[in-house]
Amino acid sequence: MKKLLIETYGCQMNVADSEVVVSILSNDYQVTDNLQDADLLLLNTCSIRDNAEQRIRHRLQELAVLKSKKPSLQIGLLGCMAERLKDQLLKEEAALDFIAGPDAYRSLPELIKNCANGETAYNVLLSQTETYDNIVPVRYATNGVSAFISIMRGCNNFCAYCVVPYTRGRERSRNPQTILKEAQLLVNQGYKEVTLLGQNVNSYSWEEDGTVITFARLIEEVALLSPSLRVRFATSHPKDISDELIQVIAKYPNVCKYIHLPVQAGSNAVLKRMNRVYTREYYLERIHTIQQLMPDCAISTDMIAGFCGETEEDHQQTLSLMKLVGYEYAYMFKYSVRDNTTAARNYADDVSDEIKSRRLEEIIALQQELSLQSNQRDIGKIFEVLVEGVSKRSENDLFGRNSQNKVIVFPRGNYKKGDYVDVKVLSCTAATLIGETVES
Ligand code: SAH
Ligand code: SF4
Ligand code: F3S
After folding, report:
1. Coil, helix or strand for 88?
2. Which tens digit of pLDDT belongs to each residue from 334-368?
3. Which pLDDT does position 17 carry in this prediction?
4. Where residue 13 sits, what CATH number does that domain have?
5. Could you tell me the distance, in angstroms and rounded to a whole number, from the CA of residue 11 to the centre of ligand 2?
6. Residue 253: Cβ within 10 Å count
7. Has residue 181 been placed in a domain?
8. Which residue puts its alpha carbon closest to atom 10 of ligand 1?
9. Alpha-carbon distance 338 to 329, whole Å?
10. pTM listed for this prediction
């Protein structure tokens, strides 16, 4: 059998997609992690910010050199950069033999064949319906404990700064029967945790025989498969995080008490220009409802510093909102203009790079404090931890996560990967809880 190496960049959706791609190619290719052995190299790429694309451009330069030494190596580029730049990439990057967009993976075997015969080597057609729903992903890089399940594709939200609606196409939900089947298979194989993935999982919707399955219903059905299967999900858009969904998360102990609810910015003026379609007040009300119903629920966010027109006052509102929510964790970025988005077409990128950097640093410093405070509040508490493996720092320690998605390190004892262990927190850093096991 021929050998395939796949490098995955970008978000969790890409990680899940790479597993689908390996499955589609599994008749002809076996995965290797050694580039020397590979007959085919695939790069599953991301366009979300300019630096994400630059990183891949550098990789392609390196690969052009490698390819000149080993011309038999076929190299293909997949994912959002393929969709955004299309055949332009084939012209610009000597390393590339073919490209395929996110909805074109079923055509990969044909593309690879055509390209070996010197024929057309790209497919970037987007689909209204493709969800790869009958394809069983190959978990080629798994830890055997947790797995992703893609439940929908695309995005219809058109946040002004974002390329995703252009690179991933229209939003579509996957047949719930195939989602449940995939989850059940993972349970049978001994997996202990699934993460249901979509750009905006709250708007999951499937209609059959006059009944509508919402995301709240779907999560409930996955949670009911097994009480020892943890259920996570990402990403939630604040605009449609319903009371029904919050109640389902609260009701089932195996639905993790962790919600990634990206706010992006704290001022109404900026939120409006971003087309996030909610206000600061609405967002804070949703947070209040979550915290009322689930005092132990962790909340994280994404933040963009220096979006078009952002004033110092707007930035202060971002900092004040972060303090009001007290986020457990945040992913924080400098605004990066993406061609053809609403923001690129309509607004000037008028915050200087220097100011963006300074604001980003302030956001990061504040989050560091909030994370530390949150971890300090956990000292003395006992959490159920799902063990993911041996700690990188010491082989005498294991690490895992609690329901709130916080990493906890503790002495190994007789425990192993995949076990649920009760751990009492003794100390912490801003990033990690440190504890000891207790008898349950
Ligand atoms: N669907 C998710 C996020 C997808 S992209 C959501 O709506 O929250 C992940 C994050 O990248 C976004 O939440 C945003 O914070 C950031 N991002 C997207 N486009 C960006 C851009 N042009 N510049 C900087 N950050 C961006
Ligand atoms: Fe991008 Fe907004 Fe869609 Fe998230 S919801 S993927 S930020 S357009
Ligand atoms: Fe990147 Fe595409 Fe995901 S742009 S963040 S890989 S949807």
Report:
1. helix
2. 999 999 999 999 999 999 999 999 999 999 999 99
3. 98
4. 3.40.50.12160
5. 12
6. 12
7. no
8. 302
9. 26
10. 0.97
Pocket of ligand 2 (CB under 6 A): 155, 157-159, 162, 164-165, 199-200, 237
Q: Whose CA is nearest to atom 7 of ligand 3?
A: 164
Total structural domains within the chain? 2
Q: What distance in Å separates the CA atoms of residue 46 and residue 265, rounded to the nearest whole number?
A: 23
Nearest to 170 by CA among 123, 103, 84: 103
Of 82, 97, 123, the residue at which a domain comes to its end is 123
Q: How confident is the model over 58-84, as pLDDT tens digits? A: 999 999 999 999 999 999 999 999 999
Neighbour tally for 412: CB within 10 Å: 15
Print the domain residue range for 428.
382-437
pLDDT by residue (tens digit) across 215-262? 999 999 999 999 999 999 999 999 999 999 999 999 999 999 999 999
Q: Among the atoms of ligand 1, which is closest to the Cα of residue 200?
A: 1
> Is 285 contained in some domain?
no
Residue at 118 is within a domain: yes
Could you tell me if residue 156 is inside a domain? no
Domain end, chosen from 123, 158, 177, is at 123
Q: Indicate the Cα dihedral angle 407, 382, 241, 210, nearest 10°.
A: 100
Residue 405: which CATH number?
Answer: 2.40.50.140
Q: Which atom of ligand 3 sits closest to the CA of residue 44?
A: 6
